[in-house]
Amino acid sequence: MVPRYVVDFKLAEIETIKTDVLIIGSGAAGLYTALQLCDQCSVTLVSKTSLTQSNTRYAQGGIAAVTAENDSPELHRQDTLIAGAGICSHEAVEVLVNEGPNCINDLIRYGTNFDKKDGVLELTKEGAHSKRRILHAHGDATGAEIVRALSEQALKNERITILENHFTIDLITNKGECIGALVLKPDGKKVYIRADATVLATGGAGQLYRYTTNPEIATGDGIAMAYRAGAYIKDVEFIQFHPTALFYPGAPRFLISEAVRGEGAVLRNIKGERFMQHYHPQKELAPRDIVARAIVTEMEKTGSTFVYLDITHESEELIKHRFPTIYQECLRYGLDMVTDWIPVAPAAHYIMGGIKTDLKGETATPRLYACGEVSCTGVHGANRLASNSLAEALVFGLRIANHIRSEISPLDNEIPAVSFSMLRQQTMNNETTVEKRLRLQKLMLRHVGLKRHEKGLTKAIKELDRFIKSFRFKMERPDEFEYVNLLTCASLVANAALQREESRGAHYREDFPERDDLVWRKHIVQSIEDGVLEERSLHDDE
Q: S-S: 145 plus which of 137, 333, 415, 508, CB 3.0-4.6 Å?
């Protein structure tokens, strides 16, 4: 059983820092929210590594928003709903497509340099988009450019205190509401950051899997902490595997952006044959879950561990202009996109589910908010539309800021007598956290990956239940906290995947291969207090 807290403590004996708003996470969601709040609130932003290390930094493709005259919010809405496979929140999608363009203007005002052509924003198209609406920067370094601009603004703002290399251990609650967080400082000492409102912007959980496009820091910390603090966790069975990650000896699973296919690249099996026409009318630009499973099917048919991505028919000028980062990364391993087919295979990329929030970004735990990949606003449904994630982070970050400014009252000055203790063994067994993490990742890849089955899911859950004994041990280091957070997330994902007896979007059950709207047009919600719940979709008529 997962305990309420992962360490023993007494608030009265810990150093206390007071702030109006605590933001945990330094990606686009956290930085943008901080900048929206700092005019009226003191903000403390906690980053578990350096300020610019986040999932956002690795976002290549771009950010989706309606800026062209031949596009419309309605078309963006339709594309998002189709990709979401029937369980998007229509209200949340409306918010995204209508409020996203204003957030783009904010990014430009903060200094983000999006690519332009003849003085006009240069747009590209990605899978399942009906129009060119993806803004990008430096070709394929959009996330890095956004983080650069936002972090520069945050660093020079006197009302934003940035704490780098601080690991958030747990959210602190009192009488059912969040009153801040317990944080581990670089020197190993703990500090209680007391806040009137706390915003989780910790990113995703790609490190659940052995092969992922996510950085090492994507360990599901926010989802796990929120779950322990009583928030609801929604739709976590829907994990998107990006179809095209570099698959080459000695190379990391580097993301080969969907924009490459948007600019004309095609997929070929190891025999050199194109195959996507056999799986979907949109071929290489089909929704990601379809492309990823098609690749796996072709790999199984041909006995290969990869397929090829071929853009050699496009000009050298286009390739180097649009994809300078990808081009240089491939070149490091002797692969020239201009002349070579690039070996690729699917890798874990994005979790559509997360901490359930309302349209204001508020969770079921009062004073606790979530935005970005850690949250589940309902925008993505069962399968995220490409490049909607950065837009969602900004739109709901702004909404969180507006709600905190207008609705959140200060906490009482008195520090409550919150404490926690449980009988813990002093040391873990001889197995290192690196070894345990790898074992967990292999288990998830084997049984809770792209293709799932009741037998494998049941086996995974039994193993995970056995691993949960790790909570009984005394933990002190960030890697130990990351492991138990991954373990918590893995259990949530596996249990939700077993519960959903159908195939929808990124969730594919080999024993239930068909989508079942009659029974399963609903959401799976989990809570530490209430267990597994079902929540009916509000749009059964569509």
A: 137
Q: What is the dihedral of CA 329, 333, 337, 341, to 10 degrees?
A: -130
From first CA to last CA, the distance across the chain in angstroms is 39
Residue type, 524: I
pLDDT (mean) for 475-492: 96
Contact by Cβ (8 Å): 168, 182: yes
H-type alpha helices, 334-472: 388-407, 433-447, 454-467
Asked if the domains 247-347 and 421-519 are classified in one and the same CATH topology, the answer is no
Per-residue pLDDT reduced to its tens digit, 354-370: 999 999 999 999 999 99
Report how far residue 18's alpha carbon sits from residue 4's, in angstroms, rounded to the nearest whole number: 23
Which sequence spans correspond to the domains of the chain? 247-347, 421-519
φ and ψ of 344, to 5 deg: -140, 160
Among 377, 351, 82, smallest CA distance to 242 is for 351
- Going by the DSSP 8-state scheme, the letter that residue 509 receives in this structure is B
Q: What is the CATH number of domain 421-519?
A: 1.20.58.100
User: What is the SS3 assignment for 498?
Assistant: helix
Say whether 466 is catalytic: no
Question: Per-residue pLDDT for 433 more than 50?
Answer: yes
Q: How far apart are CA 96 and CA 394, in angstroms?
A: 9
- Residue 511, phi then psi, degrees to nearest 5: -85, -10
Radius of gyration (C-alpha) of the chain in whole angstroms = 22
| Catalytic residue from among 288, 452, 500, 509 | 288
Q: What is the pLDDT of residues 392-406, one digit of tens each?
A: 999 999 999 999 999
Lowest mean pLDDT among 175-179, 194-198, 230-234, 323-327: 323-327
Domain 247-347 has CATH 3.90.700.10: yes
